[in-house]
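Could you help me review a protein record that somebody else here produced? What it holds is a sequence and that sequence's fold in token form. I have pasted the whole thing underneath without changing anything:
=====
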Amino acid sequence: MNASQCYRAPALLTLYVVVFCCLLPVCAQNRPDDVHITPRVQPEEPKPAELVSPAALKSHTKALRVDVDMVLVPVTITDPLNRLVTGLDKENFTIFQDKDKQVIRNFSSEDAPVSIGIIFDMSGSMGSKIERAREAVSEFLKTANPQDEFFLITFADEPEQLSDFSESVPDLESRLIFTAPKGRTALLDAIYLGIHKMRNAKYPKKALLIISDGGDNHSRYTEGEIRSLVKESDVMIYAIGIYDHYFPTEEERLGPQLLSDIAETTGGRAFTIDNPNDLADVATKIGIELRNQYVLGYRPSTPTHDGKWHRIKVKLIPPKGLPPLRVYAKTGYYAPSQ
């Protein structure tokens, strides 16, 4: 059986139970039929409070600042085999801001609705991979919560918004059918447009899924500008890259590392694959990961309105008996300036 497993750590026990998630490894050739993750059994105590166009592109953009007292930090936990770890409790986490320990006031591991933007590469080099890439989008959408909202941006010589925020999965899929690969790769401009669109998102939890086969070679925005914008946006970024072994420019050669750095800054992840047949499996994995995150909420112990970057560090206190685990969380946020 090729299906991998994910861990579930009980609330008050020191042992963990291995739960099958039917997630294939990136290198797997067989696609999962479905996924089962056992819900965490809640203890008998009160539940935590609810957590609560290309032509317009310019060379610079005003920084995005989110003026809220509560800082929300989505967290993903994986084991050494890259399987999700579910069932942890508030007591298993410690969070620091600028090296100062914070009080976790809100904690959730429920499947909350997400505002999602799909950033889809339609450049000429995607010609032989386009059908698998479309299939990957469809598989990703199958993991959606019925309340999720989506928008779609494609990019080649320039980004184009094909769909506004919508809860209609069939509508989103239909808009990809009639697109044809051509042109170069304006990846950075597409990320900018996606971040800009997220200003109209309905939900606090926001994510971009980028599917691309190469680094940028045709954008107006620079890497530095996009890195800064991403840090200011409070949007998780996930990326699936299927890259050729030859990069004609330095920008394209550095593309995979750029996407990886951007994604990890936001608490997301970048996946690099060699075979287009693996696209759908990885897209499913990302969709399930979005559904099985922990969300930690805290109010800074020393509130500041300095407009500066404040570093966040999430540390895990795992139950005894678990192997070494990895924590994925955003690395910081910009405080409001007023």
Q: What stands out?
A: The CA atoms of residues 74 and 230 lie 16 Å apart.
